[in-house]
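Why should sequence recovery work at all? Because a backbone constrains its sequence more than one might expect. Tight turns favour small or flexible residues, buried strands favour hydrophobic ones, and helices have their own preferences. The token representation captures these environments compactly. In the example below, the structure is given first.
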């Protein structure tokens, strides 16, 4: 079992502590949190060992799970890597692209593994259809959330939209050609609602909307490609796959047939895969353990996290 420690014991950090503690692939050694009062309360109530310094925790583990505010990601990760520790780092990877690039170099130099917490890659609805998403040419994404003061210290692009940026970059095998975007600050000092249009060299276009001031929650992405439409509901953990194929010469009574202006007939059929329920955060942590143990590439690499941050930064620069 890999010895793991958590830096940051806020809302998400406590979830990571609980899951690492129950995982059969990790031995939870303890945690550090800058708020000593909160840390000692967690230690007393939940029984996790509290370390009074970042250095002491890092020295005691094999894997450092960084769930601190984004501004401190770089310093925490740099220290852990310099001590030869593997790092799991929550999204966004760092505060700047330059910091992310440095971490990528340090991981390679120190021959350790790094993974970024883009948890939607492990959403069961996305996992069920990702292999069917082949060369999408138009993608539409909506990630809407009710207002929550937690997270408003960063633009909605880094708080919410970056999830969908990472998903899109993982399925579009082409470089970004152009980005146009707009954002509006309504409640916070940074934009609370944003829209971005990403154009890729291969002709694919992605239209993303993110809001943290909505009246209802929504996390839905639609992929359009040749002869197929794929919808993923990340919130409800549902997916829908609609495909087209050449219509049979003698259609059945219940076959759905479309005919275009040229007279070509296509049959519409549904091909919805089975969704296996999982805990996405536990999955991302345990697949990272697998990557370490088998010396293979993590599912969400520091390169992936860097590219998602790069695109997010380009979007913010448009505001």
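From this structural description, the recovered sequence reads:
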């Amino acid at each position: 079992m890999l010895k793991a420690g958590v830096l940051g014991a806020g809302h998400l950090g406590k979830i990571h502590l609980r899951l690492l503690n129950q995982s059969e692939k990790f031995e939870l050694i303890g945690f550090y949190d800058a708020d000593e009062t909160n840390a000692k309360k967690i230690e007393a109530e939940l029984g996790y060992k509290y370390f009074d310094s970042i250095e002491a925790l890092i020295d005691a583990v094999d894997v450092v799970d960084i769930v601190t505010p984004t501004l401190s990601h770089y310093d925490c990760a740099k220290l852990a890597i310099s001590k030869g520790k593997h790092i799991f780092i929550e999204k966004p990877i760092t505060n700047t692209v330059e910091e992310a690039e440095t971490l990528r170099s340090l991981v390679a130099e120190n021959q350790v593994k790094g993974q970024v917490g883009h948890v939607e890659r492990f959403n069961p609805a996305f996992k069920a259809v990702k292999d069917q998403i082949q060369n999408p040419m138009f993608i539409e994404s909506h990630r809407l959330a009710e207002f929550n003061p937690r997270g408003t210290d960063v633009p909605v692009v880094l708080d919410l939209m970056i999830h969908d940026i990472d998903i899109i970059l993982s399925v579009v095998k082409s470089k970004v050609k152009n980005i146009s975007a707009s954002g509006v600050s309504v409640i916070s000092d940074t934009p609370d609602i944003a829209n971005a249009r990403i154009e890729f060299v291969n002709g694919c276009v992605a239209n993303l909307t993110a809001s943290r001031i909505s009246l209802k929650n929504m996390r839905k992405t639609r992929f359009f490609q040749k002869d197929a439409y794929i919808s993923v509901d990340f919130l409800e953990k549902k997916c829908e796959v609609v495909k087209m194929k050449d219509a049979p010469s003698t259609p059945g009574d219940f076959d759905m047939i479309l005919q275009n202006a040229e007279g070509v007939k296509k049959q519409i059929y549904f091909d919805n895969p089975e969704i296996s329920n999982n805990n996405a955060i536990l999955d991302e942590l345990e697949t990272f353990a697998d990557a370490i143990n088998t010396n293979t590439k993590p599912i969400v690499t520091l390169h992936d996290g860097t590219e998602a941050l790069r695109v997010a930064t380009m979007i913010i620069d448009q505001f």
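A few observations help interpret the result. The chain has a mean pLDDT of 95.
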